Each structure stands twice: as C-alpha cells, then as structure tokens.
C-alpha cells in the first residue's frame, strides 16, 4: 500500500518541478519586459511563491487519472498500466510544453497568456504570428522538443515508480483510493476554504506581467475555455443589424449638455465607498421597507442624499464591483472579472484617481478569490488590498471571514495613517449567507428571509458604530461617504427575480463634504450602478470620456435609464416605461407603460433595450 501512496506523491512532485521549470523559462525569456517596467527582482521572484496554490490545484486535476490507474494496479500485476501512465503523462507534458512554446512567442505581443480566442481567428493571433521570425519559430519548435523530451526523461528516471507487484491485501487499494480522491479534491479546490480557488490566488502585483508569470498556463486555458463555452464567439443577442443597434445605443447615451450639479464642498475630498453585501431597497424604511431593520442607516440618511430608483445591473458581487469601479454593466452568462485577458482593454476609475493624487485601498473581510475579484482589483492598481488573510487570526470570524464590526475597526485604524486625499472601498460580508453574525436575532416576522433580515440588522448596527468612530477622526470633515449595495437580494416581499422591485438597491451620499442643500434630500432619478464611475469623476473634474456606459447622476441633461441582467434575460427602464425580457424563451415577463402610450413608442422602447444588450455584449466579445 505504501507504494501506491509514494507513487502518487512522487508524481505530484514531478508536476510541481515541471511547472517550476516552465515558469523559470517563461520569466527569463521575458526579462526585458521586467526591466522595461523597472520591476525589482524580489517582486518578480514572488511570482514563484504565489504560483504554488494554482500549480497544486492544476496538479490535483492532472493526478485524478493516475490515481485511478494506481487503484487498479493494486489488484492486477499488468505492465501495460505503467505504459498507460507514461503515455498519459507524455500527453500532458506535450500539451503544457506546447502552450508555453506558443506563449513565449505571443506574450510580448499580446501581454496576456494563451486563451481560446487564439483558436478562433482573432486579429491578435494574426498579429502575434506575424511578429515572429522564422528563427523564432524554429527556436520555439526546438524548445518544445527539448522540454518535452527532457521532462519525460526526468519523470521516468527520477519520479515515476514502476508498479511491478499487486497489493498484498485486497483492501489496500480501497484504502488508497478512499484517501487519495478526497486529498486530490482538496488540492484542486485550493484547500478547505468555503470558496474554491481561482486565478485570483496567483494575482499579487499591480504589474500585470508578474501576475501572468504566476498564473498556471494550462489552468488559465482550461478555465478560459469553460468560461467562453458558456457563450459563443458570435453574439447570441444580435437582434438587429449592427449599425442600427449602434445608432440606437449612441442615441440612448447621448448627453445633450456636458455639465453637472456640484454636490461637494471641496475639490478633492476623501472618498469612502461602503459596499453593503446584498442590501436590497427592502431593508430601507424610506424606500418602502418595514420599519426597524436599518435604523442606523435612517439616521445617516437624515444628513445625506438618497437615490430612490437605483438598480444593480447584476446579481453577483464581482458584477457589482466591475460596474462600480469600471462602469461596466453586467453581462449575460459571463463577467468581465472572469476574463483577465480583457482587463487591459478596460477603463479604470481607480487608476485615474491614483494619477490625480489619491491613495487607494480596498478592504474585505473574506476571500477575494471569489469571482476573480482580487485579479480585477490588481488590474485597477489599488495601492493597498486587505482581505481575510491579512487580518489578525485572533479576530473573530464566521464561515466566510471577519465579521463587519471588526473589519470596520481595522479600516478606521488604517485610515489614521493614510495620506489624504484617499479613495477607499470597504466591502462588507455579514449580510451574506450563512448569516453567522455574532449577535442574537432581534426580528422574527420576516418569514423565509428571517436570517437575512437579522443579518442586515447586524450589518446596520456595525455601520452606525463605524460612523460614530469616523466622526471622531480628523479626516471626517473632508470625506464623502458613498453607501451602495453590490447587488440586491430576495426579501420578505419575495419579488420575482425578473422584476425591478427585486433589483432596487439603496444609494446614499453622506458626510461633511456634501453641500448643505443636498442633505436630507432624495433624488428619484432612474439609474443603475454602472453610472457611478462617470458621476464620481465628473464631481472631481476628472476625465470620464473612457467610460461609455451609464450616465452622470447629477447632469440634468444626461440620459435616464436602468439596465439589469438576470439568468436568462434583461430588464430596461426609463421614465417612459419598463420591460423584462427573456432572451432564452423570447418573451416578455412584463411590460409596464403609462396608459395610452402609442404602440410605435412601445416598439421603439423595446428596440432600445434589445439594442443596448446587443451592443454591450458585442463590445465584450471584441475586447
């Protein structure tokens, strides 16, 4: 039985050594790119450390088949099982060597690793191949032969244990497989955490090439294939000729006059974004909720500016973060954060703020692997990113991470030493299932959402405590607070998912940097969270032209609309009406228009919504 375990362990070590060799070659080959960006050697070497988790997960997937072979080798003394293992390993080695060979020729041109787009006739592929000389092609072919041959020699000579005898007892192979399979499962999902591993575990630097150094090439290609297989490279949401759809969207986004109402007392205030996990409008009394759920928010609201018709364009945290930081409305079936190869083509509010002298930070009490958020944040070049692993292990936690009250305290402590002006986003988690917040329930009337409503009560209590601490800080008078949800959530009202009522979220501007005439007021403008980037940048007098989608919330001449995507469709709302449409079943869940609206106006309205999602998704495919 020992031989079975030792054989699997040695095969694991081989794959880790193999990935180390490939990464070393890849880094050395692109050392000029490192020098060009003046990156310290120590930061480059960290790519090998941050690669370990993803390499281990990749090895876990690879070793599933060898583990099954070893299981049968415990019963049968058959030499061809050894040949099957060697043949299988050769195929995997050739595949990884081929991927790396292609990347050695393409990475300097593309600046991202190989993905499925390379097999679909993209322009970048032609450009990459055209940039290679015949000498380069011959060298890359030699690399493939040498690496594959050399690696297999290492595998057979030093790592592979040829199984010559079957197990002495028939029970041994069963013990082996019962231990090996769970162990491999733990490896491939990145440990015992509630959230499984993603490419984010390899992202650690604001230099994107270092993050690509750390990402396992085979893992990236496989994930990219699975992600892209969820949608075709042709636009499934093509309702109209492309030119017609683009003309309609240009008209929708047209701004009659480039101006904005200034709500800030100072030119460069500190900005604190409080991103409230799953906060639906049904938690806020002034937005129609039952009283008593969020009393602290109600107190803050008295001196703030509340938007009453703000909607989240998606239903997941990574969609909300992409909308708020990059001005990207949520997409059907996929997300921007799940496609790192597209990051460099996306605009970034945080990078613009950094250039304007802001000091940026992001705080979360959980794991940023979820939805590839960490990778997306590094793309935005946050100067400081704090997540659960960066917080004192003695701090009380729930299953998902540090409770809100302790994250708020950490945030206050850190801001004491942060240079002004700063831009800091804090993302809460206590109002996320499994709702194991450290407080006894106080609400018992919410039915099927009782746990969620109580978690929101706790999150609100923490929010109030946070503001009481913040008011004691010297930076408070120079700070604007923006409180908004990452997305909505089902409530005791049990709205349909495909309704605007379900997707409505609170948006509150508060703090002493807000002009007095806006305090204690409400704004009924219809919008979704992709409008936040333009709004913030325009308030600061910074350029917002890179951000195509959404609109400035304080420009009375800007378009007024909300777009929301859900599992099989989208929703579209303006002051003229609203629709909810299934792109899978090709029917409308609902149509709401003022009585007497002419049929041609309704048809034009529905055409606008379809054009919006068509052009949005086409832009994603083209990036």
Your description of this structure?
With 623 residues, the protein is of the alpha/beta class. The chain has 21 helices and twelve strands. It has helices at residues 2-29, 31-36, 41-50, 52-62, 64-73, 80-110, 123-130, 134-159, 171-188, 208-214, 217-228, 242-253, 295-301, 317-326, 349-355, 373-379, 404-415, 450-470, 500-503, 532-539, 599-622; strands spanning 270-276, 305-311, 359-364, 384-386, 422-427, 479-485, 504-510, 521-528, 562-566, 569-574, 577-582, 587-592. Strands 4-3-5-1-6-7-2-8 form an eight-stranded mixed beta sheet, with helices on both faces. A four-stranded antiparallel beta sheet has the order 9-10-11-12, with helices on one face. Strand 9 (562-566) and strand 10 (569-574) form a beta hairpin. Helix 6 (80-110) crosses helix 7 (123-130). It is globular, with a radius of gyration of 27 Å. 46% of the residues are buried.
């Amino acid at each position: 039985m020992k031989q079975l375990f030792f054989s699997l362990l040695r095969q694991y070590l081989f794959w880790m050594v193999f990935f180390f060799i490939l990464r070393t070659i890849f880094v050395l080959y692109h050392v000029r790119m490192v020098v060009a960006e003046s990156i310290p050697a120590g930061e480059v070497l960290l790519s090998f450390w941050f690669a370990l988790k993803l390499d281990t997960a990749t090895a876990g997937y690879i070793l599933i088949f060898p583990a099954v072979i070893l299981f049968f080798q415990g019963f049968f003394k058959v030499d061809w099982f050894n040949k099957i293992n060697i043949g299988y390993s050769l195929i995997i080695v050739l595949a990884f060597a081929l991927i790396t060979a292609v990347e050695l020729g393409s990475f300097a041109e593309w600046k991202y690793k190989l993905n499925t787009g390379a097999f679909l006739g993209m322009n970048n592929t032609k450009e990459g191949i055209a940039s290679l000389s015949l000498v380069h092609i011959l060298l890359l072919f030699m690399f493939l032969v040498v690496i594959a041959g050399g690696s297999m020699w290492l595998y057979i000579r030093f790592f592979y244990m040829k199984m010559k005898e079957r197990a002495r007892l028939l029970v041994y192979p069963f013990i082996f497989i019962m231990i090996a399979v769970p162990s491999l499962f733990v490896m491939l999902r990145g440990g015992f955490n509630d959230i499984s591993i993603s490419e984010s575990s390899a992202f650690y630097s604001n230099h994107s090439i270092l993050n690509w150094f750390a990402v396992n090439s085979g893992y990236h290609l496989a994930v990219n294939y699975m992600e892209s297989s969820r949608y075709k490279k042709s636009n499934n949401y093509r309702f109209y000729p492309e030119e017609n759809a683009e003309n309609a969207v240009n008209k929708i986004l047209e701004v009659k006059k480039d101006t904005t109402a200034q709500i800030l007392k100072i030119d460069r205030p500190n900005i604190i974004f409080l991103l409230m996990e799953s906060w639906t409008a049904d938690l806020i009394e002034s937005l129609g909720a039952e009283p008593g759920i969020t009393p602290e928010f109600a107190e803050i609201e008295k001196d703030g500016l509340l938007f009453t018709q703000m909607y989240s364009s998606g239903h997941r945290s990574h969609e909300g973060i992409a909308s708020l930081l990059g001005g990207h409305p949520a997409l059907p079936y996929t997300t921007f954060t799940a496609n790192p190869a597209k990051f460099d083509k996306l605009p970034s509010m945080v990078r613009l703020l950094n250039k304007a002298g802001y000091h940026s930070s992001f705080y979360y009490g959980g794991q940023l692997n979820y939805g590839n958020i960490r990778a997306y944040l590094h793309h935005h070049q946050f100067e400081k990113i704090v997540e659960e692993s960066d917080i004192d292990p003695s701090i009380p936690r729930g299953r998902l991470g540090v409770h809100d009250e302790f994250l708020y305290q950490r945030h206050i402590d850190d801001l004491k030493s942060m240079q002004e002006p700063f831009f800091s986003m804090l993302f809460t988690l206590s109002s996320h299932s499994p709702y194991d917040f450290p407080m006894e329930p106080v609400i018992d009337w919410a039915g099927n959402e009782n746990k969620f409503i109580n978690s929101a009560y706790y999150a609100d209590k923490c929010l109030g405590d946070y503001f009481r601490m913040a008011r004691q800080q010297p930076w408070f008078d120079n700070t604007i607070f923006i409180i908004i949800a990452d997305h909505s959530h089902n409530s005791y009202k049990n709205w349909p998912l495909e309704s605007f009522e379900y997707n409505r979220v609170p948006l509150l501007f508060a703090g002493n940097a807000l002009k007095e005439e806006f305090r204690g007021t409400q704004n009924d403008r219809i919008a979704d969270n992709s409008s936040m980037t333009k709004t913030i940048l325009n308030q600061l007098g910074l350029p917002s032209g890179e951000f195509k989608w959404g609109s400035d919330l304080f420009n009375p001449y800007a378009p007024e609309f909300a777009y929301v995507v859900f599992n099989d469709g989208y929703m579209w709302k303006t002051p003229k009406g609203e629709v909810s449409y299934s792109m899978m079943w090709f029917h409308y869940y609902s149509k709401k228009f003022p009585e007497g609206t002419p049929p041609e106006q309704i048809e034009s309205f529905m055409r606008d919504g379809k054009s919006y999602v068509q052009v949005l998704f086409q832009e994603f495919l083209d990036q």
